[in-house]
């Protein structure tokens, strides 16, 4: 009998990571459309709302009243999401905190990885962002509380400080890590190539988010992935060569921005995770996230979903999470394909799926702790001794991978495909 799917559809709700875009164009209208499509398909929706952006718009509103108008539209849209039954949780890109406003443009500064900031700066960011979201939503629901968090740019390394900070803020579920994801920029400090758990929620080792630790009140929900096959690479070629790609709102294609400074155009947050040129993607195997973003055809979206579910179906688990990531700012011109995908998801897998918001999923795993992988108390010292007694870890990464594979297959009995 096939295992059950816990389907979590969430949207990273934001403008461009380099400061370009308008709330009305890239957030308000896409949010309305996505809420309508999800409601028609009967799928609950979670918005992970970018808060660094909102605080920056409020900060610069005295220099440009237009930013104040956009900030108010942002607030009213977030309240509308909640009133429409959507879950709303925080998402933070820290580069907004080091930004400046010059000649009509927001100029970013600082790392995109919140975990690399100093303790005081990181805690201040989290505190300001969380208070901002609470203030907005408690205006329509006094019982609102923050339950979850999604790391901007998937970045949670080094993990000790950020996980402790999130625990202090009352966060119970953290999203971001995905097996195989590695930044090509060493200063970005993200490497998820070797995760001890790639699919199920797990309690993290606070010193290394890729390892399973004892229960300390926070669970990591890994992002779903799929191994890109030849059909997937064909879709990639088709998408790269399609004229529609030029009309999907990429950072240099927003018609209302004129004479954008080159320093802004060259700041591409996605470059830190670049897989290299197209030819490299076509020739080498790689993993990709289950993302709804850009001019994807229905055939491509269906293929990605079916490949991901096929992998999950091979796992010996009663219930497995299927985490679907959307970027509504990139759906312009592609809503028909997205609508067809959501209908297919509900019709094809509805009989074995439970569709949940992020907060509902957290409530489910808390009521059933057996769904969360964690170290038993007797295993903690063994893991610490093992790490301390393996100095070769720092010299021969390949041996580390072999040792972790052996541990997964011979000790825990679990190796994910």
Please describe what this structure looks like.
This protein has 417 residues and is of the alpha/beta class. Strands 1, 2, 3, 6, 7, 10, 13, 14 and 15 form a nine-stranded parallel β-sheet that branches. It has a two-stranded antiparallel sheet with strand order 4-5. A two-stranded antiparallel ribbon has the order 8-9. Strand 1, helix 1 and strand 2 form a beta-alpha-beta unit. The relative contact order is 0.16.
Number of helices: 13
Q: Give the DSSP E fraction (strand runs of 2 or more residues).
A: 15-25%
CATH architecture of the largest domain: Alpha-Beta Barrel
* Helix vs. strand class: alpha/beta
Number of domains: 2
- Name the CATH superfamily assignment of the largest domain: Glycoside hydrolase/deacetylase
Name the average pLDDT.
Answer: 87
Count of DSSP strands:
15
Rg, please?
Answer: 21 Å
Q: What is the CATH topology of the largest domain?
A: TIM Barrel
Task: Specify the biggest β-sheet.
Answer: 9 strands, parallel
Helix percentage: 40-55%
Overall 3D form: globular
């Amino acid at each position: 009998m096939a295992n059950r799917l816990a389907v979590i559809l969430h949207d990273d709700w934001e403008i461009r990571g380099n400061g370009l875009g308008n709330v009305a164009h890239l957030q308000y209208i896409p949010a309305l459309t996505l809420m309508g499509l999800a409601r028609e398909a009967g799928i609950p929706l979670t918005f992970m709302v970018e808060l660094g952006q909102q605080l920056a718009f409020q900060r610069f509103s005295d220099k440009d009243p237009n930013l104040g108008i956009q900030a108010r539209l942002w607030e009213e849209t977030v309240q509308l999401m909640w009133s429409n039954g959507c879950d709303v949780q925080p998402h933070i890109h820290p580069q907004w905190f080091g930004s400046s406003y010059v000649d009509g443009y927001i100029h970013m500064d600082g790392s995109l990885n919140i975990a690399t900031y100093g303790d005081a700066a990181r805690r201040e960011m989290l505190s300001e962002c969380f208070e901002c979201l609470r203030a907005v939503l408690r205006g329509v629901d006094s019982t609102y509380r923050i339950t979850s968090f999604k790391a901007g740019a998937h970045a949670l390394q080094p993990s000790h400080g950020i996980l402790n900070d999130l625990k202090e803020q009352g966060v119970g579920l953290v999203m971001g890590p995905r097996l195989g994801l590695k930044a090509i920029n060493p200063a970005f400090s993200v490497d998820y190539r070797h995760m001890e758990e790639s699919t199920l929620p797990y309690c993290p080792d606070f010193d290394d988010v890729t390892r399973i630790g004892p229960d300390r009140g926070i669970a990591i929900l890994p992002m779903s992935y799929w191994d890109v096959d030849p059909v997937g690479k064909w879709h990639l070629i088709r998408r790269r060569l399609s004229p529609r790609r030029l009309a999907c709102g990429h950072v240099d294609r927003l018609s209302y921005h004129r004479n954008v400074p080159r320093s802004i155009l060259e700041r591409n947050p996605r470059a830190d995770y670049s897989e290299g040129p197209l030819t490299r993607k076509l020739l080498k195997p790689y993993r990709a996230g289950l993302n709804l973003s850009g001019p994807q055809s229905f055939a491509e979206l269906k293929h990605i979903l079916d490949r991901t579910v096929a992998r999950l179906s091979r796992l010996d688990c009663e219930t497995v999470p299927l985490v679907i990531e959307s970027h509504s700012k990139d759906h312009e011109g592609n809503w028909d394909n997205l609508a067809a995908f959501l209908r297919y998801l509900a019709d094809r897998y509805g009989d074995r799926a439970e569709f949940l918001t992020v907060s509902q999923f957290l409530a489910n795993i808390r009521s059933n702790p057996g769904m969360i992988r964690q170290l038993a108390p007797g295993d903690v010292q063994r893991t610490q001794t093992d790490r301390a007694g393996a100095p070769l870890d720092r010299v021969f990464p390949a041996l580390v991978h072999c040792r972790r594979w052996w541990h997964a297959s011979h000790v825990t009995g679990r190796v994910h495909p």
